[in-house]
Amino acid sequence: MLHRNGISVMGKMMVLEGGILFVPLLVLPFYPKEIVLAWKFFVPAAVSIALGMAVCHRKKRKMSSSRLVVFAWLYGFAFAAVPFWLYGNLTPVQALFESVSGFTTTGLSVLDVERLPHIFLFYRGFLQYVGGLGFVMMMLLFIQEKDSVTLYQAEGHPDKLMPTIGKTVKVIGMMYGFFLIAGTILYTIFGMPVFDGIVHTMCALSTGGFSNRLDSIGYYHSLPIEWITVLLMLIGTTNFSLLLLLFRGRIRDFLRASEIRFLAGLTIITVPVMTLFLTKSGISAGQSTELAFFNAFSALSTTGYSTCSYREWPQTALGIMILLMIIGGGIGSTAGGIKLGRVCRLMKNLAWNIKKKMIPDRTVTLTYYCKGTEKELLDRTQVEEASTYAQTYLLVYVVGTIALTFFSGCTLLEGAFEFASSLGTVGLSIGVTNAGTTSVCLLIEIIGMILGRLEIFVLIQAFFKNRKSF
């Protein structure tokens, strides 16, 4: 699909990126000693805004929506890396890695967060909050384009929640603003510092997983904080359209949704199995249950918060974590992975095929997929779309796992875990990703994070479809 004034949209996206870089400066009144770091944000922000305004005044030109979306993200990755690079402790590749990990809501990091200034801690969390909503979503909050629908859909948002895109975007923005305030208050009530509460709420809602603490959520040793985090991760991994049903109090319609029931089923199956494996490894039954529940949700929601190190976990439990990271969260949510909706459709189709072989040939059987307020017949087109994406995703996963294992020297299990985390934009790490990781390995993970966040086919459409339209 073509956008009639692509150059103007590019300029507006560049201005938006500059505005994003200005936001961390709001932290300085609370931490005045960090004023010396202000220029590291001010300079790239001013440059991006100036470039954007110059581009806006160029001659109108048509451009495909998918290319505009890809441009916005790649441009955002590059400029968001500048403050990290100017900070002085990172190589260009490491700075880019941190930027990509933030915007793609992955959460893998090469920084020592315990020594990082507050302005950079806030910046990392804000990158994930923006990345969860998406560049196009953020732009449409302030500026309505004539072809907003094509941009909205090209970024991977399948559902229009309200009669118009403008109202849809505003509703989503209001919901996330409300949850940001509510999450921060809850964290503060149960003992988390206000600043930590803001950052962790932004990162949990965006299923990002950046933390101000080296031990992540495990640092606080608080069961209520873990439960609050699970709640926020569940909100973040839920499809926007289903989230609106929940926000409006339509609990019955929310619980009818196939995606939610599939999520519940996965939880009911995987948490007890993980608990069993952890208990057999010598961990107490109570602690095993707590670890299995929190970390299973963290993997499935692709958030990446952790309460422990995975170094001592049995390989069977790690295998389940890898499976959950590959499945991922809801379609149209901030989560990564193949997505619950696609896997649910594939499982329904599998069950239908098995059932068809066990009943008389003339018997008519129909399979439905429920979106909450409506049921739709599961047809061949939906199954083919889900199957094609899942196969492509798994192919990328296998290639990436082998490449990461080869270049990092880690075991195959460690490579499989780390690349599942990268491609699924999860952020959990078994120790492969750290300050000493080579640039080649970081670049492999960067490619995985970008493919996972933009859902692979957006990139294919941007570079190979309608080449003459650019």
Molecular structure report:
By secondary structure, this protein is an all-alpha fold. The protein has helices at residues 6-22, 39-56, 65-87, 92-103, 118-133, 135-142, 148-154, 165-189, 194-205, 223-236, 240-247, 251-256, 258-280, 285-300, 315-327, 340-357, 380-408, 412-423, 439-453, 457-464, and strands at 2-3, 63-64, 368-370, 375-377. The chain is 64% helix and 2% strand. The protein has a two-stranded antiparallel sheet with strand order 1-2. It has a two-stranded antiparallel ribbon with strand order 3-4. Helix 3 (65-87) crosses helix 20 and helix 14 packs parallel to helix 15 (315-327). The mean pLDDT is 88.
Key terms:
globular; two-stranded antiparallel sheet; single chain; mainly alpha; 470 residues
